[in-house]
Amino acid sequence: MISSPVTWQGHDLVDSLDWILPSLLEDHIQVWAMTSHTQHPQVHTLLDKMAGASDQPVPAELRATPSLRSPTLYIFTSGTTGLPKAAVITHLQSLKAAAGFWAFGATQEDVMYICLPLYHSAASLIGIGGTIELGATCVLKKKFSASQFWKDCRKHDVTVFQYIGELCRYLCNQPKTDEDKVHKVRMGVGNGLRQDVWREFHSRFGNVRMCEVYGSTEGNLCFMNHIGKIGTVGRSNFFYRLLFKYDLIKYDMVKDEPVTDQNGFCQRVEMGETGLLLSKVGATSPFFGYAGSKQLTEKKLMRNVWKGENVATTEVTETLGMVDFIQEVNVYGVEIQGHEGRAGMAAMIVRPGHAFDGKKLFDHEEMEMTSTFKQQKFHLVQSGFNPATISDLLYVLDYSQESYIPLTDSIYQSIIAGERKL
Q1: Does 313-416 carry CATH code 3.30.300?
Q2: What is the model's pTM?
Q3: Which of 23, 332, 345, 368 could be bridged to 377 by S-S, CB 3.0 to 4.6 A?
Q4: What are the transmembrane regions (predicted)?
């Protein structure tokens, strides 16, 4: 665990810090270099410290962390759509990424070859993290060299390597030799491997199992191609969709915005159509965003994407029955002209001595009681939700106020006219 801000530099990059080193120190950011000595007294050296480090386990107080969701480091995005952003990486994300090699079947007997930059999550979290997780061996190359790649693999008995798509293309572009298939490499883990390069790589270097991973550093969803099917970035199944909610929506590449219908809702893509991948933020798929301005994080979030999902009225009845000021409740659905499906409504009796509290109904978290009575819904469904024809008080959920507010005739008319989203 890193308890204070730290930046790591290769020893050959230390001189480039001259103009920003004072400001880093003012912000209490330590600078460490991968060397045994440096001419900069304010830069810490690492290799000499590692040589004299104890081989005993790290004390528990130094390993303690408030929670798995506590930040452990920042990884900057590539900045392809703007300035690079500092993605918040938590202990939870680090542990999940470190399980990547294991998920593809790697073991502690494997020798991992990592030649990708460590400032990227693939090499740092999956590569180094995965090697430590397994207790495997890591061959850490300072930079990728197409001419030295297979020589290194043969020299160190490499069995697993990390790649990006272009890396494999560079290997295929090298002059052919009689030793192209003389190696122990059995698996490659990475992303962005083109179909034609994939086939050529197999044909030339043997049946190396290529394991594609699709995701982003700050993202909350990941796909993995476990079966090695050429051209597939990942696999999904029934159980995966139960845990992680995601969809592909239509996206206008020219306007750089989602394509919406007449009611302002997103539209799912057709089979074979290109679209934008959305992943629901939840307990099993949290999104920790970016360090700094909250606006950077908010730009990655979309709300009111769908009209809604089918929900059993009995489930809603039981949930509302747990609110302390509600004595009895009956939930049903009503049709709204120009809208698909039905909108949820609830007829309720307020407990004597209590008052309806729309704010509490919105914020309700603790469950206090239950009600499972079965009730007749027919006449309630027929009466709809027109305040002009129903004598009882009606309430509607207002997201802007985060409360249930009285359903007035003007609000009713705006719903009918399609001006107000439900």
Answers
A1: yes
A2: 0.67
A3: 332
A4: none
